[in-house]
Amino acid sequence: MPRSRNPIDRFVLGRQLTRAANASVSDILAGFSQPTSHAATRIAMTGPPGAGKSSLINRLCRRHLNAGRRVGVLAVDPTSPFTSGAILGDRVRMEDVSDHENLFIRSLASRGAHNGLADNIPELLMTMDSHEFEEVIIETVGVGQVECAVRDLVDTTVLVLNPSSGDYIQAMKAGVLEAADIIVVNKSDLAGADQIVAALHSVISGRQFARHAWMPAVLKASHQDDAGLQELDRLLAEHLDWVRAYGDPVESRRARRAYHLSTLLARRGAEVIERLTSEWLDAGLAQAFDNLVESLRGP
Amino acid sequence: MSNARSQPLRGKRILIAKPGLDGHDVGAKVISLALRDAGAEVIYTGLRKSPEYVARVATEEGVDAVGLSLLSGSHKELVRDVMEQLQSFHASSLPVFVGGTIPPADRDYLLGLGVKEIFTSDMRLDHIIMAVSKALA
Fold it and tell me: Phi/psi at A137 (nearest 5 deg)?
């Protein structure tokens, strides 16, 4: 869908994202960013470390950039809870597209977020929306079940596994269904891919789906052939059509709002707890909790 | 527990970049890890990047500083080109550090281009971290 538009203003967007990432809870509540009329299609890529998320995003981006789309990537890597430092290395695995004129990649440290995302993701996504991206891909920290949180923020969630992810599926059980719209068994040239696919199918077929419900799709992909990538692309389009036909925009707006509220509350809570005095901490639990709730309103 | 002394770079974003044709990046990785342990969020470009790409990533990632790792002997040209490119991305105010095999005779030239500090392999890591923290404080 090539069309005329201004080139990406990397300077302005870069600074806006920095401001969005660093906004305090009070900044956000004071009306940090307003929703824009343009909304990019949002895709989340989630899954355990080493599943090949970055490489798959790299190949998907190349395909979509070649089709003339403007693509943004928000790639989250974990912040060390001990030093607050982070190595943000996803860009290195996206090397062959990373200098494309229609691509913008921002690496994010998870900071205080423990759900596979980063602080202020809603603000970062809104900022991206003001720069005419057709598509924004979020790569989450692959940590397990909790990264389901991303679902509330995106149109389509893709879970990326590989043939050694058997334990992951065991741990998630039917949770894999709640976790994803599309499941990619990546590195399918390695032994064990078919068993993983079979295990996923058996989880899915053991479940009743309502009429018009989206049934999670399972596909194999590998670095060595493009068929899997084409299939992923087809399923992404199909799921987006499904969202447009059967999704409930009111419900999804409410889910986004609920996510937003819960992250703001968690951050404010962490801020307050960090400042608690020993006198408060030594009080009875109920008393301490009351004090905490009292302080949530902020300074 | 965290405190200002052990994490002097907490909240800072730093790009470690390898412009030019160097074949290895052990030094860049060692520095990246040391910066991370000092609390920084470190973005690493990978090997063999053009000055234009380095400046673009610095802008896109909204970093607070850029560290250039250079072993190839072409540091004068490459640093000059990176500085020029930063200017064209409106990022000429970003502090730039240079590390690698830099002969003493070339120091003044690089500092004259606007480089904040030059680090060589005989320096202690904690010294380098301290110098970066001081420049970004």
Answer: -110, 130
- Mutation pick from B5, B48, B61 vs chain A, by most beta carbons of A within 10 Å, is B61
Cα A295 from chain centre: 31
Give me the total of CB pairs closer than 8 Å, taking one residue from chain A and one from chain B. Answer: 81
Q: Are A91 and A75 in contact (CB under 8 A)?
A: yes
CB atoms within 10 A of CB A292: 14
Q: Is B11 part of the contact surface with chain A (CB cutoff 8 Å)? A: yes
B89 neighbourhood in chain A, CB within 8 Å: 10-11
Identity of residue B47: L
Q: Which of A82, A94, A107 to mutate to test the interface with B (most CBs of B within 10 A)?
A: A107
pLDDT over 60 at A134, yes or no:
yes
Q: Which H helix or E strand runs over A71?
A: strand A71-77
For the segment A217-271, what is each residue's pLDDT rounded down to a tens digit?
999 999 888 999 999 999 999 999 999 999 888 988 898 899 889 889 988 888 8
Q: Helix, strand, coil proportions of chain A in percent (round to 5)?
A: 50, 15, 35
In this structure, is the dihedral angle defined by the CA atoms of residues A59, A62, A66 and A68, taken in order, positive or negative?
A: positive
Mean pLDDT of chain A: 86
Alpha-carbon distances, residue A127 vs A32, A99, B45 (angstroms): 10, 21, 24
Asked if A50 and A141 touch (Cβ cutoff 8 Å), the reply is: no
Q: Kindly list the residues of chain A whose beta carbon comes within 8 Å of any beta carbon in chain B.
A: 10-11, 13-15, 17-18, 21, 79-80, 82-89, 91-92, 95, 98-99, 104-107, 109
This prediction has a pTM of: 0.90
ipTM, 2 dp: 0.87
- For the segment B15-58, what is each residue's pLDDT rounded down to a tens digit? 999 998 888 889 999 999 999 999 999 999 988 899 999 999 99
Indicate whether A167 pLDDT > 80. no
Distance, CA of B79 to CA of B76 (rounded, Å): 6
**Range in A10-14, A21-25, A166-170 with the lowest mean pLDDT:** A166-170
Residue A72 has what pLDDT?
Answer: 97
A139 sits in which H/E element: strand A135-139
Residue B5 pLDDT > 80: no
HSE on the CB side for B80, CA within 13 Å?
9
- Cβ contacts (< 8 Å) between B94 and chain A: which residues? none
Cβ neighbors of A92 (< 8 A, separation 6 or more) are: B44, B45, B46
